[in-house]
Specification:
alpha+beta; disordered N terminus; six-stranded antiparallel β-sheet; 25% strand
Length: 723
């Protein structure tokens, strides 16, 4: 969508925020709790950190004036102490030492364009050891379309990479609003980055080299505000990428062309293919997808809200999607548009599956069961009165911060941090920072960590730095921090996108394990070539499969077409029909014929009808010869039908016509298919398999079926057990 459309769909939200804060709120502790749960971590009587005024450098693209960047917490210096890392409305990332509250680094992420108001770091910083030095690095994007990573090891800022990510085509919107996800995408042991952009692109980037990862690039054909998620939607141990993006229906190349527009949630396989695409009519997708197993099938499902722009009834809902199929699991109506990313976790042990907690516009906090049944709807607006329009687009952290064994929902929809019992929906506390000026409603998610043995909450917000009571370019950044007297308990969703890798699910990425792939390579060599791979072959194919440079089918097809495999097949025909080793000239001739396209069925027919086989095994007698064909090809004794075949031969039928007919008969096709299933999968064909595969094998041959079976997930799993 164009910039003018973006401005129009956000301006209503901006005005709503102004209206919300103009109403005014009180200071101090809420009366909800007799003994306060949280106390503020102050600096000189003020908030944890006051970033001061942006001094005119608010780079909000005239569209994103709220603070969307959520705090990241981790040891990024290698000192053994925790730091808090925040983005903001200028192009800088700020890093604070939590213990001292001191600012230890300010990093300009590049591309700041004051004239066009581009460059804000609206992404939540992602933390991961990108350069492999054992210390967490910082990865961010900004709305000037820069993707950047930095090391702060030893307290010194080192840029690992910083590059401009152009839009899909000239004229497309420039910028990256979403948060990058970190994971092991290209199969090696170095963390990679996954990004989406306003420029209609989805990409995977390899480690610090920043080479685009094969297969991950996608042209989304409209803007993406939603942050990508990475997780296992199949339950097979591998990952997929889930992305939300707009589709206004105005372009013929758009998948929603001809509709009234909406948005997509799409799951992409790491080879670039689309696993599924879920269209949401008349609702854009700004909310970032959250992943969790809702139906207990061992695979992650997707929960997501919608977004601004369309304001009809279709946008007022939370959506759950089956991760395996892309089918709708449920849609839950809401009183306000749910722009913030949902949070998911076990907050009620008496229910089945995890619970979903999400904010909507208007100040409403919702919770649903895994089934989609509404558990509660609580108004958490500062004044205790909710509507359907105030721009409470923030997220929710889920963590037990008061030591009572019950998970809390922590959110800051306006000026006050609100603590809610996530099981019951009851408000436990409202807290307002000691910051002396207005705090504008934030669209970020609180981050909860254990610091010095106590649950600690961090929130970033836009502040009225000049105290004039209104939004302007001299506003600033404020970081508030709150600490409980209790240690952090269960924390199923403690920050935006669940973790500092920003994957959007609770299954943290781990370096890929090469052993399952090595087992597959060893087994397929054994099954196809009756030998183990050499160490160089094992390393080569393991690497290519894990890096997705080749598929399992590629390897199976290559082995089935190799000289070694063809030699094995033809040698078996020599043994079975002539009871001898092949002579070199005969073997060479048959290999050449096979390489030039002669089907295995035709080769088999030639061997079984050969004069040598007819003389040595058949003793030049049709009855003896046909009887042996029944035994060797159909694996049974001849029936009365043998008389018809012998009569036909006596009346002039060529032997190769008979052998080809035997080899391609429905009965022999069943024998061949059963043999492949038994050999490769260790079982008989399932019901209907022989009928389904017979035409395919008859036309394409055994080798193609063998490759298809060997490329299956079942074969891969079967290869993990020695047999």
């Amino acid at each position: 969508m164009g910039a003018s459309r973006i401005r129009s769909r956000v301006i209503a939200a901006v005005l709503a925020v102004v209206a919300t804060v103009a109403a005014g709120v009180g200071f101090g502790q809420s009366a909800q709790s007799a003994v306060p749960i949280l106390s503020e971590m102050t600096t000189a009587g003020g908030p944890f950190a006051d970033g001061g005024s942006y001094n005119g450098w608010i780079l909000d693209n005239n569209a994103t004036g709220e603070v969307w960047s959520s705090p990241a917490v981790g040891d990024v210096t290698g000192s053994g102490k925790l730091d808090v890392i925040v983005g903001g409305l200028d192009s800088r990332v700020r890093v604070y030492d939590i213990a001292s509250h001191n600012l230890i680094a300010t990093i300009d992420t590049g591309g700041a364009d004051k004239a066009n108001r581009r460059g804000a770091v609206q992404a939540s910083p992602a933390l991961g050891d990108i350069d492999g030095d054992g210390v967490l690095d910082i990865v961010v994007t900004n709305t000037a379309a820069h993707l950047a990573a930095y090391s702060l090891k030893g307290g010194t800022v080192t840029q690992l990479f910083n590059h401009y990510v152009p839009p899909a085509f000239n004229g497309a919107l420039i910028g990256m609003f979403s948060t990058p996800a970190l994971g092991y995408i290209d199969g090696d042991t170095t963390l990679d980055e996954v990004t989406t952009s306003w420029g209609q692109e989805l990409d995977g980037w390899s480690g610090t080299s920043q080479a685009k990862i094969n297969g991950t690039h996608q042209w989304l054909k409209d803007t993406s505000w939603s942050s990508p998620a990475v997780g296992d939607l199949n339950g097979d141990g591998g990952n997929e990428i889930v992305a939300g993006y707009d589709c206004d229906g105005s372009g013929k190349l758009q998948p929603c062309w001809g509709t009234s527009g909406g948005g997509y949630i799409t799951a992409f396989n790491l080879d670039g293919s689309v696993k599924w695409a879920h269209f949401v009519s008349r609702a854009v997708i700004w909310s970032s997808p959250a992943l969790a197993d809702l139906n207990n099938d061992g695979a992650l499902d997707v929960v997501v809200g919608t977004g601004l722009y369309y304001r009809g009834g279709e946008a007022f809902k939370e959506i759950a999607i089956n991760g395996k199929t892309g089918a709708t699991m449920w849609e839950a109506q809401t009183q306000g548009i749910p722009v913030g990313s949902p949070s998911i976790g076990e907050v009620d042990s008496s229910s089945v599956g995890p619970e979903i907690v999400s904010m909507t516009e208007g100040g409403w906090l919702y919770s649903w069961a895994a089934s989609g049944a509404k558990r509660y709807q609580t108004c958490v607006a500062d004044g205790g009165s909710c509507d359907s329009s105030s721009a409470t687009n923030n997220g929710v952290a889920l963590a037990d911060i008061n030591g009572d064994g019950v998970v809390d929902a922590i959110t800051q929809p306006e000026q006050k941090l609100v603590v809610v019992n996530a099981k019951t929906g009851a408000i436990e506390e409202r807290d307002r920072s000691a910051y002396s000026h207005t705090i504008f409603a934030s669209s970020s998610t609180p981050t909860v960590v254990n610091f010095n043995g106590k649950a600690t909450v961090f929130v970033t917000s836009r502040s009225d730095a000049n105290g004039n009571g209104s939004r302007d370019d001299n506003d600033g950044l404020v970081i508030t921090a709150w600490q409980s007297q209790s240690a952090l308990g269960a924390a199923p969703w403690p920050t935006f996108k669940q973790n500092m890798f920003r994957t959007g699910d609770a299954q943290l990425p781990a370096p890929p394990n090469p052993v399952p792939t090595q087992n597959f390579v060893k087994q397929i060599y054994q099954d196809f070539l009756t030998r183990q791979p050499s160490s160089s072959d094992l390393s080569y194919w393991t690497g290519r499969l894990m890096n997705r440079q080749n598929t399992r089918y590629d390897l199976a097809a290559q082995l089935s077409q190799s000289n070694e495999w063809i030699t094995k097949v033809i040698t078996n025909f020599y043994h079975d029909t002539l009871n001898r080793e092949p002579d070199s000239s005969g073997l060479s001739g048959w290999i050449n014929a096979a390489q030039h396209g002669m089907p295995v069925a035709q080769i088999a027919s030639a061997f079984y009808s050969s004069p040598e086989y007819f003389a040595t095994v058949g003793h030049n007698d049709y009855t003896t010869w046909v009887s042996d064909l029944y035994q060797k090809l159909l694996l049974r004794a001849p029936d009365s039908g043998i008389n018809g075949w012998v009569n036909a031969l006596n009346n002039g039928m060529p032997r190769d016509v008979l052998t080809f007919g035997f080899y391609q008969s429905p009965e022999k096709l069943g024998v061949r298919i059963t043999a492949l299933y038994t050999s490769l999968l260790g079982r008989s064909p399932e019901n209907g398999a022989i009928g389904n595969w017979s035409p395919f094998v008859s036309n394409q041959g055994d080798l193609v079926l063998a490759a298809a079976l060997a490329a299956s997930d079942e074969y891969f799993s079967h290869a993990q057990t020695p047999h």
